[in-house]
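User: Here's a protein and a ligand (pyridoxal-5'-phosphate). What would the complex look like?
Assistant: Let me lay out the input and then the predicted complex.
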Amino acid sequence: MSGKLAILGGEKTRNKPWPPFPVLGEEEKKAVLEVLDEGRLSYFIASVGKDFLGGKKIQELEQLFCKYHNVKYAVSFNSATAALHAAIVACTVKPGEEVITTPYTFTSTATSAFMHNAVPVFVDIKPDTCNIDPVKIKKQISPLSRAIIPVHLFGNPADMDEIMEIAEDNDLKVIEDCAQAPGAKYKNKYVGTIGDCGIFSLTENKNITSGEGGILITNDEEIADISRLIRNHGEAVVAGQKKRTYKSTILGWNYRMTEIDAAVGVEQFKKMDSFNNVRIKLSEYLSKNLQDIDWLEPPTVYDGNKHVYYVYHMFYNKEKTGIDRSSFLEALNAEGIPFAGGYVKPLYYNPIFHENKPFIFKHYKGNATYEPGMCPVAEKCHFEKLILTPVPRPTANEADMEDVVSAIIKIDENLYSLKNKNPSNVLVKS
Ligand SMILES: Cc1ncc(COP(=O)(O)O)c(C=O)c1O
């Protein structure tokens, strides 16, 4: 027996803080100083830059992404949101057309469609991986459908074979949202290389960071070209003219990454596989050492796939404990173990989808709806089952994971007293 629960006045399982994140080393510092010593923070100007392609660090980062993924083009942005917006334009989605995606993702996977006056259509997720359910995609295809954005949620690859087959049959483009999954593999192929393009996030809490940043990868020259224009006010430098001339061809933004961000990104990218290996090792440690807890289900990883565990999640079974998820999480947090209930509310709950509808809805001719209850699997997952934690990541170690395991075993051994703490919990006998 492992003692009284902290929430009932016992000793906490863990008192010390969790390792700081992100993990930045001497290499990142040196690279940033190199940029400062050189004195140029952005080369994206016509008089010095080569056709708006950015400076040394930007191009080095893009080359690293190309080489690693064995793709022809990588285009850097100042966020994955910017990269998603550019991808939607570059995949020739037109205003008023539909982009199919999951509601169980970060906001901008879907709102990037609104940025181009396109309309997100939500398809429910699979209960085992929380990724978009290909079977349900088919039912949502309409004459206005133009693209699918599968998300490799939490670092676990979506079902790309099925998604690509549907896309091919219906002439849809595929934009892989790999923001949470750099280095993940679907059947031995890196995510981001299977669809028409893939986008990655380098924001601070991701597997690797440049502070803020995003990268789009593709083998499609046109997607790469349009993406570069979108990031650069829609302007190109017209080659072959004596005096360089700006040429604005399409609507663009300033989505450019700075040399300092890219310098950090380059050094982080070099560490990506070793960072991911730590995440995988620690996450697998949790799954293995919690396998006897029959009211918690570890993440499902399909054979042949590589999950890179941006966060570690489990499914909580209230029917087996007789205790609400929130009471369980309160007890776990009191033990010093940070777990949250659910990820983000299914996106159609956001007011922008029903109260403050974007401009496009005045002109939209399709049938997309955003009603509570429309994706029941995502709702059950979010409101009842999913729990997640960021702790299996560098520079944590197995001793840190042992604290997570001990705290959960402690709760398992004290389920009866936890249930009695809150009389509204009713123990269901199995
Ligand atoms: C699945 C997903 N897509 C897109 C984004 C957007 O990334 P960024 O913050 O770099 O714009 C994120 C980041 O949180 C994400 O998790």
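Summary: The longest strand covers residues 73-77.
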